[in-house]
Amino acid sequence: MTDHRDHEAHGHGHGHGHFGGSRGWFARVAHAVAAHSPLSAHSHDSADKTDAALETSSRGMRVLAVSFAVLMVTAAVQAVIVLASGSVALLGDTLHNVADALTAVPLAIAFSLGRRAATRRFTYGYGRAEDLAGIVIVLLIAASAALAGYEAVTRLLNPQDLRAVAWVAGAAVVGFAGNEWVARYRIKVGREIGSAALVADGLHARTDGFTSLAVLLGAGGAALGFPLADPIVGLLITFAICFVLRDAAREIYHRLMDAVDPALVDQAERILGGVAGVHRVGSVRLRWIGHALHAEVEILVDHDMSVVDAHAVAVEAEHRLIHELPRLRAATVHTDPHGPAGADHHASLSTHRSR
């Protein structure tokens, strides 16, 4: 029985488990391995993977910086109109936009932590910091829903007239446009780099866009002589925010519980089954760590195959997985002997193993 983890322990690792540090550090290690290993091409592939991982974090940081700037400009424009109109609804929307901009702070911290190298305590690195940031974002969405509902009920009980209705409507349009642009940007990049937290943050921006629409419709109702339009629409928007909250909470919950799309497991099994020398695919386990996938798989090879040959099959299986499975950064491949008939190679572990 050959465990591909031994391959990494003896100095022939390809660096798939190391997703922090600098590119220069990794390049020096990759060059050192290439100098004496027939697997040098695969080592360079690993360097490309690590560079790609660093690039995804850099993209995440760029998204946060751009969206923070857009939302702060949007809030500043709205704040000027608040002073001129005295609109409490627009004030609430402005505060929502400021709060949404500030969600970039925990995400920026998470992306920065995720780039740190693994340690002997945090052996998988710090990628799960994104999931913690996702929890903070879900709580902020919940707080937005509670605040929107509170404001709507308060307005129903104490209707107020609006001044400078046209300006309030214009500010609401600015608020919606700014939030919707940021939402689309965050969600698009978040899905491309596999960041559930960034997707959740995009959904949060969308909820604040809905709140801006409520201000617009409320202003329209006030212009038509129906002051209760604002709080009624506000209640409807509160329900919409709750649906967004449900979707964001579900996505973060799945990440915290190590859930993956079953189609990815099927794809991994097909990739492994197509590797020469693999008789059968055993267990396949995938998990997200930050915005990167990690895999632990078992394959069965001929029982009379030499350790060197079995190791070569494991290396090829790892190579194929990392190249063909989207956003997979590291894989541990464990080889088991296939045959002879009736042999139980895990008899001593039968009471300890679970599948």
Automatic annotation (TrEMBL):
Membrane protein topology class: Multi-pass membrane protein
Region spans: Disordered: 333-355
Residues that span the membrane, as ranges: 63-88, 94-111, 132-152, 164-182, 203-226
One Pfam family it belongs to: Cation_efflux
Main location class: membrane
Presence of the UniProt keyword Transmembrane helix in the record: yes
Keywords, sorted A to Z: Membrane, Transmembrane, Transmembrane helix, Transport
Residue ranges occupied by any Cation efflux protein transmembrane domain in the UniProt entry: 65-257
Family in the record: Belongs to the cation diffusion facilitator (CDF) transporter (TC 2.A.4) family.
UniProt protein name: Cation diffusion facilitator family transporter
Protein source organism: Nonomuraea angiospora
